[in-house]
Amino acid sequence: MNPALFLWQTARLTPQAPALFRGLEMTADYREFNRRAAAIGNRLKTCFDVAKGDRIALFSKNSTQYLEALYGIWNIGAVAVPINAKLHPREAAYIISDSEARLCFTSARLGNDLANVQDRGAIPTINLESVEFEAMHAVEGTGHEANTDAGPSEPIVLRDDDMVWLFYTSGTTGKPKGVMITCANIAAMVEAYFASVDEVHASDTAFYAAPLSHGAGIYNFQHVLRGARHAVPVSGGFEPSEIFEAGRQLGNLHLFAAPTMVKRMVEHALASGETGEGIRTIVYGGGPMYLNDIIEAVEVLGDRFCQIYGQGESPMCITALKREIVSDRKDPRWGLRLQSVGTAQQGVEVAIGDGDGNPLKQGEIGEILVRGRSVMKGYWNNPQSTQATLQNGWLWTGDMGELDEEGYLTLKDRSKDVIISGGTNIYPREVEEALLTHAKVREVSVIGKPDPQWGEIVVAFVCFNGQDKVSEKELDAHCLDQIARFKRPKEYYFVDELPKNNYGKVLKTDLRARLDRAV
Q1: Mean of the pLDDT values across residues 367-376?
Q2: Where are the beta strands (DSSP E) in 13-91?
Q3: Can you give the pLDDT at residue 148?
């Protein structure tokens, strides 16, 4: 089912229900939200010849216009390609090119940055905060009878296996891969959320402090279905003071937060005396949560936390810890449960396999395998990676873990060496390749270092050509010209040689041991 039907149906049932908020100010009820989305979809068709299945990129910070554009894209059966606003414009340009996007919704600054790195044949861009975008959803010329009781016509019909969300996640090669998410994947995720994570009520407020291009955006569907409110902070990002104020003023706040965001909220609450009034649910995930941090979070902010574990390939939908488990301190196993990422969500099977995919026993560590309707269709234009990741009906996650006798999954390591910093995946190969383009860098190896604030930080071990050495400041500047700021190393170690095995492969285990000794 086309996800735009979620909005269309809710707009018919509760047209005057508050829908979109910029900070504390309402900008649209559900009737208006749906009308704007339908008008945007119609303009995409008539002015840009966008058809069903065409890809439309979004490279922008959070805004209510972002949500309007998303549903406009889906209204006509096109595919949304969300791009992290923190990416370097060159990285965004690659995703736009690889997805063969017809158009990109962006912001003024990001649009200018993108224009500076794209070829002459670049696709059109539309600033979400511009007069041009406002004209896209003006009442006049929408092609719909927007002022009649009937309202806009129904969105285009889509099949279960039609793609609607093309999410790019980097791989070990350093090249981002497009994860094809279908209507059926979205429906399965929504059903699993209601059954395994949390309920949503019409009185709730989805607060988008984390990027709409990622998990926070995926969770919009549940709130549209229930006719809840959608609030985007004025800052367009994460500011604890805005969250606590919105909780008090709007009430029944729901938000998705990376562990580092939870930690900052707790620190702010301790410093300001905030209690979390009005915040109903904080779903945390996207990186490792330290046991002491979640214990403190519950002590300071109360029974408001749920945990999920998912991947772009099974969006937000592998395992979950419900709030009663997160808050439980009576069960003799509560500590072990709290260190896990929960049990399989509804409709999802989780297994642990060896290198050949053979099932392992309880307590044995192996690769986490996932099967269910939430698992992606495959990688966009990448059959080789699809075949390697989807085998015999199972998604090979690349994460290592173990299952206990109760079905609780505990993560142990990541076989792909991904670094998770502040809830965002950073792949060492991307950083290594950027550093290796410097003329004076001979070899480099990048690993993650545990950090109490960010979960992990990026650390680079660098070998120079002979005696030609450069400063950390120069390497930083070089990285910033190649990759996003958040991916650059936070620490550098200058070494004469990298440790290698007999086959010439860098021994990252040795580098991690060196960091441990340094601590």
Answers
A1: 97
A2: 18-22, 25-29, 55-59, 79-83
A3: 41
What count of other Cβ atoms lies within 10 Å of the Cβ of residue 415? Answer: 16
Grouping H, G, I as helix, E, B as strand and the rest as coil, residue 224 is helix
Average pLDDT, the chain: 92
Please state the length of the chain: 519
CA–CA gap between residue 283 and residue 319 (Å, rounded): 12
CA distance 514 to 519: 9
Do the beta carbons of residue 500 and residue 466 sit within 8 Å?
no
* pLDDT-based confidence at residue 516 (cuts at 50, 70, 90): confident
Distance CA 325, CA 111 (A): 44
Residue 23 to residue 245: CA distance in whole angstroms: 10
At 70, give phi and psi (nearest 5°). Answer: -55, -50
φ/ψ region of 466 (left if φ > 0, alpha if ψ in -120 to 50, else beta) reads: left
Largest CA distance in the chain: 76
Q: Does position 145 have pLDDT exceeding 60, yes or no?
A: no
How many Å apart are CA 106 and CA 72, to the nearest integer? 15
- State how far the Cα of 46 lies from the Cα of 33, in Å rounded to an integer: 20
Which residues partner with 419 through β-bridges? 426
Q: DSSP letter at 515?
A: H
Cβ(46)–Cβ(71) below 8 Å: no
Structure tokens at 268: 């702010």
Give CA angle at 337 (331, 338), nearest 5°.
Answer: 105
Beta partners for residue 400, in sequence order: 367, 413
Report phi then psi at 469, rounded to 5. Answer: -105, 155
Q: Provide the token pair at 192.
A: 């699993």
Kind plus residue range of the DSSP H or E element containing 147: none
> What is the DSSP secondary-structure string of 284-340?
E-SSPPPHHHHHHHHHHH-S-EEEEEEETTEEEEEEEE-HHHHH--SSTTHHHHHHS
Could you give the CA distance from residue 443 to residue 154 in angstroms, rounded to a whole number? Answer: 57
- Please give the helix or strand (H or E) that residue 497 lies within, else none: none
63-94: pLDDT as tens digits = 999 999 999 999 999 999 999 998 999 999 99
Token pair for 41 = 């979809």
Q: What is the pTM of this model?
A: 0.86
Rounded to the nearest 5°, which phi and psi values hold at 515? -65, -40
**For 254-274, what is the mean pLDDT?**
94
pLDDT digits (tens, 9 = 90+) for 231-250: 999 999 899 999 999 999 99
Q: Kindly state the tokens that stand for 401.
A: 């873990």
Q: Which amino acid is at 451?
A: D
- Secondary structure (H, E, C), 413-455: EECCCCEEECCEEECHHHHHHHHHCCCCEEEEEEEEEEECCCE
Distances from the Cα of 275 to the Cαs of 250, 270, 300, in angstroms?
15, 9, 7
